[in-house]
Specification:
about 120 residues, alpha+beta, 4-stranded antiparallel beta sheet, about 40% strand
C-alpha cells in the first residue's frame, strides 16, 4: 500500500476557550503523526457562522488539516472524531493530483495576489 493525500476539515464547538481549541487540534494532529501520517498543513480558519444550527450552536471553530497517510488510518481518525464531544462535524476527502496542486498554490497565496492586483487596477 502507498500513502495518499488527504484533507480533513472539522468543526469544534464554539464554547471552547482558545487553549482548549488548540489542545483539541493538537490531539488530532498528534494522532495522525503517531499513526505514521505526514502532516502537510494545518490551518485554523477561526470562528465562523454555520449554515444551519448543529446541536443548537450557530457558530463553530473550523480547522483544516492536510496530510499524507495510508488509507487504513482514516478509520481510526474518524472513530476519534466521533468519540470527541467537542467535534460537531468532520469531513475527510482524498485529494487527486489537481487538488494537491491547487492546495499548494493556495498555501503560497497565489490566489490572494490576483485579488490584490484586481483591487489595484480598480483604483
Amino acid at each position: 500500500m502507498f500513502q495518499k493525500d488527504y484533507e480533513t476539515v472539522f468543526i469544534l464547538t464554539p464554547v471552547l476557550s482558545d487553549v482548549q481549541m488548540k489542545d483539541t487540534v493538537d490531539k488530532f494532529v498528534n494522532l495522525l503523526k503517531e499513526e505514521g501520517a505526514d502532516i502537510v498543513n494545518v490551518e485554523n480558519w477561526g470562528l465562523k457562522k454555520l449554515a444551519y444550527p448543529i446541536q443548537k450552536k450557530t457558530t463553530g471553530f473550523f480547522v483544516l488539516v492536510e496530510f499524507k497517510a495510508l488509507p487504513t488510518l482514516l478509520k481510526k481518525l474518524e472513530i476519534e472524531y466521533r468519540r470527541d464531544e467537542k467535534v460537531l462535524r468532520f469531513l475527510t476527502t482524498v485529494l487527486d493530483k489537481h487538488a494537491v496542486t491547487y492546495a499548494e498554490r493556495r498555501r503560497k497565496g497565489e490566489f490572494n495576489k490576483k485579488a490584490e492586483v484586481k483591487e489595484e487596477a480598480a483604483k
